[in-house]
Amino acid sequence: MQQWYQCPRCGAPVAFGVRFCGNCQTPLNWPAQQQPPPQYQQTPQYQQQYQQPGGGYQQQYQQPEPPKKKTNVWLMGCLGLIVLAAIIGGITLAVGMSSSTKVTTPSDIISKVEVGMTIADVMGVVDIDKLTSEKAFVVVNCNSLSFNNDVLNYEATKDIDSPYFMWLCFGIVVQNLNPAVIGFSANPEMVIGTGRIDFAEAQALVEWNSDRPFRR
Q: In which domain, by residue range, is 38 found?
């Protein structure tokens, strides 16, 4: 009858006389003249522990997880602020350049204002806000208004329903210079011509027109 014993290393059952453990491949040296080791007894404590040959390496390979993508909130916030600042700066620069290109002197007004412009067009090229101080900009209503080689011909009136009106543009500061005149038709409101008017005559018109609204 074949006798079974326990492997001294893993505890697996081995038959008496075999040279290697069938489970862990441990060499077994059986005494030639001595009593064989205690027989193998099946007990609930025995747990088979299979190990791969070559040092008991157990294959437990796990594929590494890909690196998590991290959103740098701080960096994105900084980039957003930079873009916003650039947009605001561009708008401010554009507005500043637009304002700086508006004219304020009588000669520049005549060169920039063209026939057919609307009031909005004129205000886009003439810095009216700088012509409102010290009566530098005055509106005079007219029954008739024409220009002949920049020579002004007009008939001033205080009738608010007059068919024509003109802007007297003295410049930023009222000086002893012939002001520019921008003539408009009332219906439709559009430029019909530009010219110059004598300074003394313009001053007289300002006094005569002093009880009229400062701007049309």
A: 1-58
